[in-house]
Design brief:
Layout: H1 2-16, H2 25-37, H3 49-64, H4 81-91
């Protein structure tokens, strides 16, 4: 469900910008699924929750590069990563 919402929010912009094409569609689906997996409370699992969250977040950041969703360099601020994460946590 969250993956579909993410797709709806970002697919048109990514297509218009030339990031989302037939060749990159599978990678964009993976990005959407990773976003969906980020929608959990890491504190609910005291043992490994935060580890899973950090790993998923890093994966999301790497995957988002090619679609202009995350920063290309460490000095560049992510376009909307913080908002994406906040929105996901609020809707969880």
């Amino acid at each position: 469900m969250e993956a579909a919402k993410f797709w709806d929010r970002h697919a048109k912009r990514c297509t218009d910008a030339g990031y989302l094409t037939e060749a990159t569609q599978d990678a964009f689906v993976l990005l959407c699924r990773t976003y969906e997996l980020l929608q959990f409370d890491p504190h609910a699992d005291e043992r490994t929750g935060i580890i899973k969250f950090v790993a998923l977040q890093k994966s999301f950041e790497r995957q988002g590069l090619q679609f202009g969703i995350t920063a290309k360099t460490k000095s560049e601020k992510p376009k909307d990563l913080a908002a994406i994460i906040r929105e996901g946590l609020e809707n969880a």
